[in-house]
Amino acid sequence: FYGNIIHHYFFMLQVLCRYQHIWNIDLRFRPAFLGGIMQATGNKPPAMLPKRAEYMLKDIKRMAKYYQVPVQISEGDFQRIFGTSNLGAMRFITAIDMTQPGYLEPLSREFWIRFWSQREDISQPENILAVAGQAGLSPEFTQKLLEITSSPAVKNRLKETTEEAIKYGAFGMPAVVAHFNGEPHLFFGSDRLELLGSVIGE
Question: What would be one Pfam family of this protein (predicted)?
């Protein structure tokens, strides 16, 4: 499962987490950089098209109600997304993936809630510290992670994971790759759970 913090991939994340034991799947989180995927594939944010942005605003609210996920979104949020860099936060999550991958799920969830529900600037170190603390990381460990987020090792890992997602055919997020019967199957979007279940026989 390839994901990025400030995207509505969170719906798919939530549902996959709910189904992973019911379907007995091995769910693995792979932090990737959405901006890199969009640039490499020539894709553009859907909200840049006014009519689609209008539709997405309604659709995200419907999905939030259906999946019971706390989202508060308004028209101005799309501009906020375009004007916010989440690269620092993605590198922090990558550092977690390299050291304590068990924290990927709670950390991603906390980042997402703070960005969407509390409208915080998750690129700021103090907010990253707060997010990490809420996810259960100690201040000392979090500080060490912050210090290595700009290291070549972390940068290369995020780049490699992003390139891996593109190799599987990803052009945006969320991107789910189901490895079934020796073949990878790519699913894009937060509304493909039924098709995913069909492919894996659930």
Answer: DSBA
